[in-house]
Design brief:
about 170 residues; mainly beta; 10 strands; Nitrobindin; Nb(III)_bact/plant
């Protein structure tokens, strides 16, 4: 699918522009506190001319045949950029999970890649303990690939979810 840059793209988020749109595909989840599973996912990045992207992610568990089993995770948030005008941006990302966890990330975007690490994690009283996380997003052959690693519930930082999504 062809992708066009928005005419009102704020220069601070230019290094993130490749992420704009709706992405769908399948991923994998695994962690010591959850069962290994496959999931479907929809990721949406939107922009309204201001120096941030809005983010929405929803996942659903699928069976071995790829059929929907049940709804799973929901996240929403914002990516704010500060471009150096040379294709690189310092990025701040705020993510709120439906489980009561909020993560604040800092990182850098350039060349179709975004690397982020948490600076702070907060949670509601009923949420599971999460102490840190990293996210890696990349434009690989026109697809969005990502990896989400988490340190939670007494476990060291390790893979939690990863996926390959197509624009659509």
């Amino acid at each position: 699918m062809a992708f066009e840059l928005p005419s009102d793209l704020h220069p601070d988020v230019a290094p993130l522009a490749w992420m704009l749109g709706t992405w769908r595909g399948n991923g994998h989840g695994d962690y010591p506190t959850i069962d290994k599973h496959e999931f479907g996912q929809e990721l949406i990045f939107t922009h309204d001319g201001r120096p941030f992207l809005q983010y929405l992610s929803r996942t659903w568990v699928v069976d071995d045949a790829g059929e929907h089993v049940r709804e799973d995770m929901v996240e929403t948030g914002f990516l704010r950029g500060t471009s150096d005008g040379k294709g690189t941006a310092r990025v701040e990302m705020v993510v709120a999970h439906h489980t009561g966890v909020v993560e604040i990330y800092y990182g850098e975007a350039s060349g179709g890649r975004l690397d982020l690490s948490t600076d702070a994690v907060a949670r509601t009283e009923s949420a599971h303990e999460v102490v840190g996380a990293t996210r890696l997003y990349g434009n690989v052959e026109g697809d969005l690939l990502y990896a989400y690693d988490v340190a939670a519930e007494g476990h060291a930082l390790q893979p939690r979810a990863w996926a390959r999504l197509q624009r659509g």
